């Protein structure tokens, strides 16, 4: 394909990010001869990893604060906004008042990708569904004559590779599977584009610190389907009441998928929620003609993703699981249901302004939850909700403990967990109060558990 017309344009990348959220688009823009300035509120010392990835490029950096002049037509033709930048940013308002064009990495990809896009979103399960869908679509490699596509690329919010780096090689003979967050979908509305296949796994309160209201969050999610065409597809989870009213929002062909669609599968990943994820992947595979045998075999071989109920170790007959991706109450509730052992939960983190009352009730009403160890900024809130639920249910359990660090939490778990039980880091919260991101939190947990395993021989 011809390279996008960024040559000579003065482009301001707003938000580099601690782990390279703006690195991929900066490299892409430089490769296409744009004049790039990167601005970030964080100082250089906090951005060292991301800056190192751009060492070889001719980029201007304005770090530690934003400069008003950068958000003016005198300095900038185009602003590329990192999805983490909140909509109420005064600098976004300044750019809009100056009539500057705003875009995002995701929008650039949608505008210039030649391949059909399968996009997956939801409050929970979207990463696993994205990976399962990619596995199903790639499963028919031995049946190239029977399928209408050549290669399958996976990217987006799942973070495994930046597909802008591959945009020039992706053709209309390929398929692209993207995981999209509500932040990315919020901005997608500005270019009035939706994917060829839209998959929505579920909707529950999330990121209300960013979207402010549940209605705004839902509206962002709905951008995945409102600009589809009658030749497109929308796949919705059948057991989410919030999604029952969504079909009229899209002109696309709509189908509801059900965990029962995957009832014959033997899965290596536990839980009914993963059976629902597999059903979504099967539905996408059927649209693109993947033979059932190949799709079933791919899902049977799927071992899960890192930080998603990931088995870490067994110590003194106690199984330790890393579920750091569980950044919502609903995902922690799914982990409780999926692990069929008596369990100790390590929970807590950054406050996203989400109610923990339903999760507290689930914890108290589930006798398999024996101990809850609380960490992070929401410790007091979670403790109050669990104690209230215990009073309402007139139950003394679970035992609630408070830890001042993740290391302390693992130590407490080791002291209290009994043989033939499980310990799960399943926080129900974002990580930003104590960690760089959920991967950092999960990796630290695994390091602590491995150290504990070494101490125990």
Q: Which SSEs are present, and which pair or pack?
A:
Layout (H helix, E strand, L loop, with lengths): L9 E5 L8 H9 L3 E6 L7 H5 L7 E4 L14 E4 L8 H8 L3 E3 L1 H8 L4 E5 L4 H13 L13 E5 L18 E5 L2 H7 L8 E4 L7 H4 L2 H9 L10 E5 L15 E5 L14 H16 L4 H9 L9 E6 L2 E5 L6 H10 L4 E5 L9 H9 L3 E6 L4 H15 L5 E4 L3 H11 L4 E5 L12 H18 L2
Parallel strand pairs: 1-2, 1-4, 2-3, 4-5, 6-8, 6-9, 7-8, 9-10, 10-11, 13-17, 14-15, 14-17, 15-16
Antiparallel strand pairs: 12-13
Helix pairs in contact: 5-9, 5-10, 6-8, 9-10, 11-12, 12-13, 14-15
Q: Terminal Cα separation, in Å?
A: 57 Å
Give the full name of the CATH homologous superfamily of the largest domain.
Answer: Mur-like, catalytic domain
Approximate shape: globular
Tell how many strands the DSSP assignment holds. 17
Uncertain regions spanning at least 5 consecutive residues: none
Rg for CA atoms: 23 Å
CATH architecture of the largest domain, please?
3-Layer(aba) Sandwich
Helix/strand/pairing category: alpha/beta
The biggest sheet, with number of strands, parallel, antiparallel or mixed sense and barrel status, is:
6 strands, parallel
Number of helical regions: 15
CATH fold group of the largest domain: UDP-N-acetylmuramoyl-L-alanine:D-glutamate ligase
Beta percentage is 15-25%
Strands of the widest sheet, in order across it, are 7-8-6-9-10-11
Give the tally of structural domains.
3
Oligomeric form of this entry?
single chain
The pLDDT mean sits at: 91
Residues in helix, %: 25-40%
CATH class of the largest domain: Alpha Beta
């Amino acid at each position: 394909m011809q390279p996008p017309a960024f040559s000579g344009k003065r482009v301001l990348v707003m938000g580099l990010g601690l782990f390279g959220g703006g690195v991929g688009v900066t490299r892409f823009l430089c490769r296409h001869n744009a004049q790039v300035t990167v601005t970030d509120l964080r100082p250089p010392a906090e951005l060292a990893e991301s800056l190192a990835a751009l060492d070889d490029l001719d980029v201007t950096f304005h770090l530690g604060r934003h400069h008003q002049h950068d958000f003016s037509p005198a300095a900038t033709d185009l602003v590329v906004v990192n999805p983490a930048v909140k909509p109420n940013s005064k600098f976004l308002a300044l750019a809009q008042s100056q009539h500057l064009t705003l875009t995002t990495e995701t929008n650039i990809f949608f505008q210039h990708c030649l391949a059909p896009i399968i996009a997956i979103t939801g409050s929970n399960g979207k990463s696993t569904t994205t990976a399962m869908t990619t596995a199903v679509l790639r499963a028919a490699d031995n049946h190239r004559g029977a399928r209408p596509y050549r290669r399958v690329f996976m990217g987006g919010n799942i973070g495994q590779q930046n597909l802008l780096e591959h945009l020039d090689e992706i053709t209309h003979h390929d398929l692209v599977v993207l995981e999209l967050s509500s932040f990315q979908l919020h901005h997608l509305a500005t270019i009035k584009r939706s994917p060829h296949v839209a998959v929505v796994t579920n909707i529950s309160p999330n990121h209300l610190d960013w979207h402010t209201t549940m209605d705004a969050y839902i509206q962002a999610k709905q951008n995945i389907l409102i600009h589809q065409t009658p030749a497109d597809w929308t796949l919705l989870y059948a057991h989410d009441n919030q999604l029952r009213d969504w079909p009229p929002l899209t002109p696309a062909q709509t189908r509801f998928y059900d965990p029962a669609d995957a009832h014959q599968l033997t899965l290596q990943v536990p839980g009914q929620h993963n059976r629902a994820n597999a059903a979504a992947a099967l539905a996408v595979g059927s649209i693109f003609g993947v033979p059932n045998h190949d799709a079933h075999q791919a899902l049977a071989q799927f071992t899960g993703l890192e930080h998603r109920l990931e088995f870490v170790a067994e110590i003194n007959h106690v199984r330790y699981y890393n579920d750091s991706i569980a950044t919502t109450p609903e995902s922690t509730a799914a982990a409780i249901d999926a692990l069929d052992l008596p369990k100790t939960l390590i929970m807590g983190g950054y406050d996203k302004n989400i109610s923990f009352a339903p999760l507290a009730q689930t914890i108290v009403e589930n006798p398999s939850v024996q101990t809850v160890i609380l960490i992070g900024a929401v410790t007091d809130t979670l403790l109050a909700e669990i104690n209230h639920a215990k009073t309402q249910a007139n139950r003394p359990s679970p035992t609630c403990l408070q830890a001042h660090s993740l290391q302390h939490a693992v130590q407490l778990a080791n002291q209290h967990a009994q043989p033939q039980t499980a310990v799960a880091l399943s926080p129900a919260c974002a990580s930003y109060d104590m960690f760089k991101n959920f991967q950092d939190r999960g990796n630290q947990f695994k390091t602590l558990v491995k150290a504990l395993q070494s101490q125990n021989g």
